[in-house]
Amino acid sequence: MNHDANDRPDPDALAAALRRTEAKAQRGRLKVFLGMCPGVGKTYAMLRAARRARAERVDIVVGLIETHGRAETEAMVVGLEVLPRLSVAHRGASLAELDIDGLLARRPQLAVVDELAHSNAAGSRHTKRWQDVVELLEAGIDVYTTLNIQHVESRADAVRQITGTTVRETVPDSVLDLADEIELLDLTPGALRERLREGKVYLGERAATAAENFFQESNLNALRELALRFTAERVDRELRALRSTTVKHTVWRSGERLLVAVGPSPFSTQLVRWTRRLAAAQGASWLAVYVEGSRALAPETQRRLDANLALARELGAEVVVTHDDDIAAALVRSALRHDATQIVVGKPREARWRTWLRGGSLVERLLRQGGNIDIYVVPAEPGAQPRHITELEAAWRSRPAEYGWVAAVVAAVTVLGQVLPSDTYLAVGLAYLLAIVALSLRVGRGPVLVAGVLSAAAWNFLFIPPKFTFHISKIEDATLFAAYFAVAIIVGQLTARIRGQAQNERLREERATALFALTRALAEARDLDGAVFAALRQIDELFGVRSAVLLAPPGAQDLVPHFAGSSAIDEKERGVAAWVFAYKRPAGRFTDTLPASAGYHLPLVRDERALGVLSVFAGDRSLTLAQRDLLDAFGRQLALMIEREHLQAASEREKLLAESAKLHRALLDSVSHELRTPLAVITGALENLAEADGGTRASLLGEGRTAAQRLNRLVGNLLDQTRLEGGALKPRFDWCDLADIVNAACEAVRDTLAGHPLVVELQSELSPLYADFTLTEQALSNLLLNAAVHTPAGTAITVSAGIEPGGARVFLSVADRGPGIGAGEQERIFRKFSRGRGARAGGLGLGLSIVQGFAAAQGGTVTYRDNAAGGAVFTIYLPHHTPQAEPAP
Questions:
Q1: Which of 452, 440, 448, 445 has its CA nearest to residue 483?
Q2: Residue 249: predicted pLDDT
């Protein structure tokens, strides 16, 4: 349901247009060449446009083009600068992808990038090519690209139903919203199938298979209609956006659109059905407009109105609510705003005198104000009864207290007039007139009319000579009395109308203020939880209700109540919410679907996709149509915020997947290299061993042994890391000798430490250590190996072990004289696959991560500090227990 505005440029639309203009000024322009399917000539048309741009001295680079071996397409590339593709290794093959960094470095005015929906190879910066295009646009580079209608995200389900093919590669509609221009390449199914037979789409058996499946004429006709509708919808949105920024005095008859006036009358049901039939016959869209006056409707009348609007919505109308006491002006304003070319109203059934008082019937006023808008007048069904004279309209109904005010004020002026001299009856008339104007600021039109009649009668009977009779003897007094009566009625009614218009303006202002406050609160929210909390608190305060939001995680169908809700959701209400989520329609109280529900449930929908449900519980109160319309607007804003959060989360997941793929590739490359190097040494030693003499044989055996030890350490590190991450590492605690652990670790890496003087410093009289001997020895071995590999040959390595003062912890320390660790790297050196910037080639960066894991498994820690003499000091701390009090493992 929409909410109409006055006949002036929409401030929100102007602001949105300004934001779009500023955003477009900062980014490049995007032009999409759209086709109904492969083979319609998208790439050829894009290259032809690129060549025209180059003729206009535009700096153009072809970032990526797919000619598919078509000679005419390849000929269009000749003479254009083509950027070399980036080679990406994937599953043993080399794939050519768009070189996004090269294109950004070249920075042309216009980049040509084919196949927007393409999925990039694993290891690329982005997983999808449309993300590459967005990055180019954000860098200020204009882009030409191509796309088939089946790759548009919102059309993927329709394509699957038409062709039976599930499309895996899709482009979000939000990316197409960035497009400054979409050029549709249209081709008849017959012409396209002829191109297929000529081999201009696919070759050989692939062409024959395509002709029998995807390229069936029925499929092509449906896809063609889909592409045409998509383009027409975009043009319609652009037309509406353009119209919303200007004052509209006439409709643009670019297409037929019907508008039907809907009210609480039972006759509105007939009007709605008649308009639906007319719209279907013309193939036109239509909207149902209700003009809400300044007076509230009675409960029964409100129910009839809700039923009529619900019927219009079910029949496919766009429901619009606007505020005004002048129905004709409101209908014309809505027609101009929504470009409705035809207005449908019912045939007037009022008495002529009432029509005259209104300044003409509704149809007559529409004809005067409607300009080039067609007016359809539908007569009531034969059995329909005209309204009785006693059925006063809502605008003329008033509370009894208002009539009491009228009687009191007229009586007060009458008493005041009695104390004045008898020849001052003109002053009394002016006092009556002033009282009527004052009353019109406080009471409705009915009481103002009664005040005019009573004051005129009292003035004539009590003050105009001859007194105490309604006879007027002088012609000037009769003329004055007639003028007074007319002025009193006219001024009173005009003042009441102005007051009603002011009230409608206040309603519009309150609605705009509420939406602005909600938009600002959502913009200031740091995350989705904050946005939902802010929205629900505003709903609670503004409408005096309790509210809740149920959200469905991306890809899930189960609704989960959000913690920010002020109302609990029982099983019955949750079932209603599930229905609303599934069918994307409001339900519950104030609707015809599950009306026995305690809550009013609204779907949170974006691009035909349900994101959640907004539930409102009003208790004994009733929500007016305007309030429900405002709630609907709140729901749309909240759905927009939820969609933005989902898109941001999806983007973060895409980045994480890209980084994971990049890390996976780097890890595979590193592991392959680390495994290949010792295997190559072992293989070479074995091949030369048979022909080698004694001295050479010993050398080869030594090299093979060293390589085997390196390979064993590498495999061991990988297995240890797997055990740590899988939670399979279970320490086996026992009493150990600290000196034995140090000696075993030094012996394990003796060959690697051969080029470094080793200094061992142990405290005297060390008590036994309750720990896992093997894990502790491996952790210390890794520290020694790390020091030997990453420090210059000939530098000393010191191993220290002992018990801290106080006896709470045991320490094992390894100090070297190497380059040490940079200040910016100390926090990440214990992460897996992390290596220092100055580290030598080789290794996977798992050693320190494993040391930390082994220490943590035993309740200990590992620390780093700079060596005062230069280098690094790594220390393992483990809990220390006395042998008399053996701790539980």
A1: 452
A2: 59
For residue 23, the model assigns a pLDDT of 47
- Number of Cα atoms under 13 Å in the Cβ half of residue 538: 24
Side by side, the strands of the sheet bearing 609-617 are 560-561, 546-551, 609-617, 600-606, 587-588
Q: What is the mean pLDDT of residues 72-91?
A: 85
Cβ neighbours for 91, distance < 8 A, ≥ 6 positions apart: none
Kindly report whether the global pTM for this prediction surpasses the value 0.70.
no
Q: What is the pLDDT, as a whole number, of residue 596?
A: 84
Q: CB–CB of 338/21 below 8 Å?
A: no
List of residues 6+ apart from 831 with CB closer than 8 A = 849
Higher pLDDT among residues 823 and 39, named by residue: 39
Nearest to 380 by CA among 276, 264, 265, 258: 265
Distance, CA of 36 to CA of 100 (rounded, Å): 28
What mean pLDDT comes out for the span 738-750? 84
In the chain, the amino acid numbered 183 is E
What pLDDT sits at residue 243? 63
Average pLDDT for 673-678: 59
Q: Where are the alpha helices (DSSP H) in 150-216?
A: 156-163, 173-177, 189-197, 204-212
Please give the angle made by the CA atoms of 362, 304 and 293, to the nearest 5 degrees: 45
Question: Are 309 and 262 within 8 A, CB to CB?
Answer: yes
| Integer Cα distance of 520 and 543 in angstroms | 18
CA 672, chain centre distance (Å): 43
Residues in the chain: 889
Give the phi and the psi of residue 542 in degrees, each rounded to 5: -75, -40
What does the pLDDT average to over 541-568? 84
> What are 97's strand-pairing partners?
86
Peptide bond into 553 cis (omega under 30): no
- Secondary structure string (H, E, C) spanning 86-100: EEEEECCEEEEECCH
- Secondary structure class of 245 (helix, strand, coil): coil
Type and span of the H or E element at 541: helix 528-543
Token pair belonging to 2: 């929409």
Neighbours of 838 (CB within 10 A): 12
92 confidence band (pLDDT: 50, 70, 90): low
Q: Which of 309, 305, 308 is nearest to 320 (CA)?
A: 309
Residue that the structure tokens 């989520």 belong to: 581
Which amino acid is present at 504?
Answer: N
